[in-house]
Hints:
55% helix
Amino acid sequence: MRQEVAHGIHQMDGGLAVLDAHVHMQSEDEVRPRHQLHVFHHSLVALIRTQCIDNAKKIWWDIRPHPFFNTLEIRICDIPMRLVESIALAALIQATLAKLYNLHAKNQSFRHYGRALLMENKWRAARYGIDGKLIDFGQEKEVDERELIGEYLEFVDDVLDELDSREEVGYIRTILKSGTGADRQLKVFAETGDLKKVVDYMVDETQAGLKEAEAAAKAAR
């Protein structure tokens, strides 16, 4: 299995912090707020009837309404290396939705930007990781990604205690200091030059913290 995974990794460092398996471009109309949810469902039915897809789960967008549950499915960051990182990102997503819901309940909103602008930042994040710069569209200038993530954490700060997720979201600051899983993989490859060593490291990282989490879960019962 490890050999197969290593064989599937590019043999050269392409410079990407994140490798996106596919590119799925959408028109500007597709990313307008879906207050007309029936239009979205009608499109799904048409795709299934014409055998473009066999079920609604095959719509692999970064964010989409779940086809079976009354919720949103967030797919953009589905392979963190460590359990603690997965929990931190899930908590940040939860806090984001709670914050936006609170704004909506107060008849407030957040700025909307076009897909072309958002995709520019997505590309920069994938290409350069947290060491790069993103565009602050409000100020219309480049800003260090770490700085913008810090502002993001401040944006959701007022909902963390209600969600009891301050510790979990706080781990994002640890990631900003110590680096992401992509940073660690690149470091292993730079030190060894061996892709199999990278895969071995990924296996070890996947198991990191699992025993401690299991023990904590048992103690909490």
